[in-house]
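User: Teach me something about this protein's shape.
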Amino acid sequence: MKTVLARYLEVFPGEKERLGLLHDFLRNTSDPKQFFHRKNFAGHITASGFVLSADHKKLALVNHKFLHRYLQPGGHVEATDPTVLAAALREILEETNIQSCRHSPFHADPLLPIDIDTHEIPANPKKNEPKHWHHDFRFVFRVESEVEPSGEWTWRPVENAIEEETFKLVLNKLRTVPRRM
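Assistant: First, the predicted structure itself:
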């Protein structure tokens, strides 16, 4: 993960300060298995996906039950996930059931996320979890054909969804994603 962060910062050098907590977390965590362990309350790496509609005009957002807001699908990296990218795709399938989704790498290195976001997760007394940090590795996906929302997710216009604080830094990056791969 240290290598991924280093490559990411080569592409987005202006984000070094913003990702200082992640850098410190990786440096201070001696066992790499702890990078992903959901009970590591010093923090852990999560994975998510910005799922664009076929025309790139809409973004799939999931109603997050604990945080009570619409976010991109994502969650914890499981031990069975071969990569963080695979974890993001698994989470998309679990949370939206979108079957026609495929990764749209923005860079020559397909494992390089389009964004990394560190954010605090509030304490969850029901799960006996104190507040902690998620270091979310975010990837871009697109659907091959139109999909009707069902369950707890919806399509939102990209420009409207991006107005949310969590998406502000991603807007310009999303505009660079190739329409055809």
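Now, about its shape. The helical segments are 2-11, 20-28, 84-96, 158-161, 171-175. Residues 84-96 form the longest helix (13 residues). If you'd like, I can walk through any region in more detail.
User: That's plenty for now, thanks!
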